[in-house]
Every structure is written in C-alpha cells, then in structure tokens.
Amino acid sequence: MPAKDWQSISNDEWKERLDKDAFNILRKEATERPFSSSLNNEKRVGWFACAGCGQILFTSSQKYDSGTGWPSFVDAIPGRLETKPDRTLFYTRTEYHCSRCGGHQGHVFDDGPAPTGKRWCNNGDALVFVPEDSLT
C-alpha cells in the first residue's frame, strides 16, 4: 500500500487494526511506562518494524541498552523516519514518526553512544520485532 494510502486511514480504522496501547502511542502520541516493553530485552538478530504498517525502522545491530526503560537505537534505517519539533513539555524535543503511516514512535536525543551520539528512544508498543530466523 502506498504511503499516501497508509496516511489516509481513519482513526476508527486504526482502532480496529491496533490494540489500545499501540493506538494511543501511534495515533495519539502517547508514551508507554518505562520498562514496560518486552522489546527492552530483545537481543535476537532481526528487525524492528512499525506496529502500524510494518515498515522496517531499525535493525537489531542499531539497538543498545540505554538504561532509560525504552528500546533505544543509535541510528535508524535512512528514509524510514521523519522528525518534527515537540513542544508539549517546557522545552522542545525532537519527535519522530514512521515515514509511511505517520505513526508516532518516540523522540531522538543527543545523548547516545558513538558513532552517532544519538539515542532514538522508541515506545515498544509502537514496534514489532521480526527475528531473522523467522524468515528462513
């Protein structure tokens, strides 16, 4: 399905497609509780995809343990995420979302490890993990 078709799905259709937590994060820009996602401890080789449309956003080699309670990545697959300023708190953060369906994923910070210095802090309920061995 082309990106423009994904972005034209109504909220009622998204509610039918997603569970409540994923809907609130992806479509309402909510944030899950820290340390609540099983993906924090995911260490298998594979890919992390948008829970809304299935677009691959991160590889397992980009993941690291930031200690923050959310799945974190040093980088993203180019072209898969778009950013915008988020001014909902008393300071401006950089929010990012899936480039295909527009689903909110998390925020990117400048306190990550080398080589990028970035921490792509993602909501686990906004992702699905696709293990490499499931494709063989």
What does the secondary structure layout of this molecule look like, with pairings?
Blueprint: H1 3-6, H2 11-17, H3 20-28, E1 46-50, E2 56-59, E3 63-64, E4 72-73, E5 81-86, E6 93-98, E7 104-109, E8 119-122, E9 127-131
Antiparallel strand pairs: 1-2, 1-9, 3-4, 4-8, 5-6, 6-7, 7-8
InterPro entries: Met_Sox_Rdtase_MsrB (IPR028427), Met_Sox_Rdtase_MsrB_dom (IPR002579), Mss4-like_sf (IPR011057)
Pfam family, one: SelR
Domain MsrB: 11-132
Question: Any key phrases for this structure?
Answer:
15% helix; six-stranded antiparallel beta sheet; 9 strands; globular; 136 residues; 3 helices; EC 1.8.4.12; alpha+beta; Metal Binding Protein, Guanine Nucleotide Exchange Factor, Chain A
What does this structure look like?
By secondary structure, the chain is an alpha+beta fold. The chain has a single domain (3-33, 44-135), classed as Metal Binding Protein, Guanine Nucleotide Exchange Factor, Chain A. 15% of the residues lie in helices and 29% in strands. The chain has helices at 3-6, 11-17, 20-28; strands at residues 46-50, 56-59, 63-64, 72-73, 81-86, 93-98, 104-109, 119-122, 127-131. The strands form two sheets. The protein has a six-stranded antiparallel sheet with strand order 3-4-8-7-6-5. A hairpin with a 7-residue loop joins strand 3 (63-64) and strand 4. The longest helix has 9 residues, at 20-28. It is globular, with a radius of gyration of 14 Å. The two termini are 25 Å apart. The model has no long low-confidence stretch (mean pLDDT 94).
